[in-house]
């Protein structure tokens, strides 16, 4: 109960009951109770109170004798509390005091009310008339808590020490083995520590907080080693638990590091294994837009698979960065090596994916330009294969301009194809740098041959189209020249017709004298020369149209009727011109003869010996007047007059006046002849 005798020895109370008492259980209980006090406390001895008030004498005697075997040295006094009705004297004939030397301790029989003679009332419980407060169930519960704490804490200390010592071993294999075992304490250290703190707080509270203002005695005070043991165990637990937390932290860090290392190797192994193998099998660029698009779609699927691993890479990189920021020197080198390895592989694989994507994009652009160029060449070829049947030179010029524009567009397209092809070839030449030792010469040769083949084919098709364009251009230029010749020939006919019209309408006058008539005759000859040049120019143009038609293997649409028109107009002009010349020459002869006669002096009659001259002049004048009234008759039977009737009357009037002068002159000359014979 915690009570003490006058020698400060602990009081051990053994309450006996009516039921049969098991000596074995009692012996075990006494051994347990006697193991609680310290050795110093045990040295002061024990006072044992055997409460036999509810038991039989034989049981009491057996218990007292048992104390000799259990605690003979520690027991100094045994007080047997007898019942109010004392046992039979025969029964109690056995005297304990006579057996003191044999028992080793003094035994007294005492009533409960007389027990205070040997033990102070304050050290006795209420059962024996004392004032000591004692609650056996409370003590039992606290003792159970204490024993549980002692057991768990001791076991926990052993386990923590085993874990901590194992983690401190220098042998790396043992360290790895201890980590691999993943050994954990059987109980939660936090729970045990909390239990210990609560127990210690309870002990301290019961010790220093008394009832009714007094100091409360605790049956589990320092003498019973409860509080010091709890405090010592708590200190040890805190120390070992702190070390254990560090071990767990190190173990968690090592586990995390191993997990990171494992994940890093998973990423690296996949990227360098299946990931790289996927890229190795994808080396083609396709032979068309559709094929390149199919390869791009396949590459996007590969990129999608890589993206999942790249996401793991990002997460791992963040975890490694967090561990590096923690600053553990022993793991820095390993973490940096893992980070570098992971980054190198991921960046290399990402570069390969980007290179492949750029290569496929360049191939798609190349095939797109090639397809556009092929369509342009097809369109140009279709235009060249259609026969040219233009209506006039302007449409030919428009068609020729369109042809030149298409050819220029083809040139630009071929230039763009060469640029795209060369760029693609340059990228393919760099493909070997990330082939992981794989010989891609054969695969690249196929791609290179395909690209060069496409460019050469386009070059040949373009060259063929250029040759056809040259032929078509020459043909179209010849057609332009043909149309020009036909137009110019028609213009020459028009000009010649205009000259003929001018000849008929304006070339009317015959002159008033010889000099004027000769001037008109000279002008007429020049006029005829112009007409002759116009006719010759038209003939040359028509001859050129014949040559061009033969070269073009076509029939001219206008030269067939232009030549007859030209010849017809020219013949009409020739007939008209000859008539004009004849009239002018007749007029010159008329004026010359008339002026000669009119200018002769009358004193020279010998000049007019023959009157035939006058007759001749009159005949010429009449002939000229007759011609002025006669139309020009063309080979086709048509007729045309020079000028208007009034113009012809005016010209005839000048002739008649001069003929009158000649007639008058003739009469004057005849008068002397007539008068001379008469005289």
UniProtKB/TrEMBL annotation:
Repeat is among the record's keywords: yes
Endpoints of the signal sequence: none
SUPFAM superfamilies for this protein: Spectrin repeat
InterPro entries: CRAL-TRIO_dom, Spectrin/alpha-actinin, Spectrin_SESTD1
GO molecular function terms noted in the UniProt entry: phosphatidylinositol-3,4-bisphosphate binding; phosphatidylinositol-3,5-bisphosphate binding; phosphatidylinositol-3-phosphate binding; phosphatidylinositol-4,5-bisphosphate binding; phosphatidylinositol-4-phosphate binding; phosphatidylinositol-5-phosphate binding
Residue ranges of domain CRAL-TRIO in the record: 1-136
Keywords noted in UniProt: Repeat
Family indicated by similarity: Belongs to the SOLO family.
Name of this chain's protein: SESD1 protein
Species: Chunga burmeisteri
């Amino acid at each position: 109960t915690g009570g003490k005798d006058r020698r400060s020895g602990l009081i051990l109370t053994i309450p006996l009951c009516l039921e049969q008492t098991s000596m074995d259980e009692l012996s075990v209980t006494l051994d347990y109770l006697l193991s609680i006090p310290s050795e110093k406390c045990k040295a002061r001895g024990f006072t044992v109170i055997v409460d036999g008030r509810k038991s039989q004498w034989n049981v009491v005697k057996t218990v007292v004798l048992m104390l000799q075997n259990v605690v003979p040295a520690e027991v100094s006094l045994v007080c047997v509390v007898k019942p109010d009705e004392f046992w039979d004297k025969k029964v109690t004939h056995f005297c304990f005091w006579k057996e003191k030397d044999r028992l080793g301790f003094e035994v007294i029989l005492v009533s409960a009310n007389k027990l205070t003679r040997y033990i102070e009332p304050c050290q006795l419980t209420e059962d024996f008339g004392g004032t000591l407060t004692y609650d056996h169930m409370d003590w039992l519960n606290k003792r159970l808590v204490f024993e549980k704490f002692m057991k768990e804490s001791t076991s926990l200390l052993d386990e923590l020490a085993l874990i901590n010592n194992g983690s401190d071993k220098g042998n790396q294999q043992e360290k790895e083995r201890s980590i691999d075992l993943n050994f954990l304490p059987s109980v939660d250290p936090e729970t045990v520590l909390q239990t210990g703190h609560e127990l210690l707080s309870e002990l301290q509270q019961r010790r220093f907080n008394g009832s009714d203002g007094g100091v409360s005695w605790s049956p589990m005070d320092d003498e019973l080693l409860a509080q010091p043991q709890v405090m010592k165990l708590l200190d040890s637990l805190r120390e070992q638990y702190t070390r254990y937390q560090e071990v767990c932290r190190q173990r968690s860090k090592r586990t995390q590091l191993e997990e990171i290392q494992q994940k890093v190797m998973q990423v690296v192994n996949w990227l360098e294994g299946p990931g790289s193998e996927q890229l190795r099998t994808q080396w083609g660029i396709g032979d068309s837009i559709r094929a390149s698009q199919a390869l791009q779609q396949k590459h996007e699927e590969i990129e999608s698979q890589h993206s999942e691993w790249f996401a793991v890479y990002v997460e791992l990189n963040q975890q490694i960065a967090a561990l590096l920021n923690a600053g553990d020197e022993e793991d820095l080198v390993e973490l940096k090596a893992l980070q570098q390895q992971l980054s190198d592989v991921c960046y290399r694989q990402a570069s390969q994916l980007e290179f492949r994507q750029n290569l496929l994009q360049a191939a798609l652009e190349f095939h797109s330009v090639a397809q556009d160029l092929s369509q342009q060449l097809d369109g140009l070829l279709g235009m060249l294969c259609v026969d040219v049947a233009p209506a006039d030179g302007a449409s030919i010029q428009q068609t020729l301009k369109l042809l030149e524009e298409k050819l220029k567009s083809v040139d630009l397209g071929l230039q763009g194809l060469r640029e795209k092809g060369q760029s693609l070839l340059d990228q393919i030449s760099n493909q070997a740098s990330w082939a992981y030792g794989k010989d891609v010469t054969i695969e690249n040769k196929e791609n290179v041959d395909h690209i060069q083949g496409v460019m050469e084919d386009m070059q040949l098709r373009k060259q063929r189209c250029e040759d056809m364009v040259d032929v078509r251009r020459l043909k179209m230029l010849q057609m332009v020249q043909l149309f020009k010749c036909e137009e110019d020939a028609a213009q020459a006919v028009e000009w010649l017709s205009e000259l003929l019209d001018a000849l008929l309408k304006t070339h009317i006058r015959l002159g008033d004298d010889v000099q004027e008539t000769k001037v008109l005759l000279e002008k007429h000859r020049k006029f005829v020369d112009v007409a002759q040049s116009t006719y010759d120019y038209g003939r040359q143009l028509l001859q050129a149209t014949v040559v061009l038609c033969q070269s073009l293997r076509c029939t001219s649409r206008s030269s067939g009727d232009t030549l007859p028109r030209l010849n017809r107009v020219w013949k009409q002009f020739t007939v008209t011109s000859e008539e004009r010349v004849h009239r002018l020459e007749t007029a010159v002869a008329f004026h010359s003869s008339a002026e000669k006669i009119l200018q002769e002096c009358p004193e020279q009659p010998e000049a007019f010996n023959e009157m035939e001259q006058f007759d001749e002049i009159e005949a010429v004048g009449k002939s000229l007047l007759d011609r002025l009234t006669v139309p020009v008759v063309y080979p086709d039977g048509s007729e045309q007059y020079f000028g208007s009737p009034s113009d012809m009357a005016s010209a005839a009037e000048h002739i008649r006046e001069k003929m009158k002068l000649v007639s008058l002159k003739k009469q004057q000359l005849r008068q002397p002849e007539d008068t001379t014979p008469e005289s």
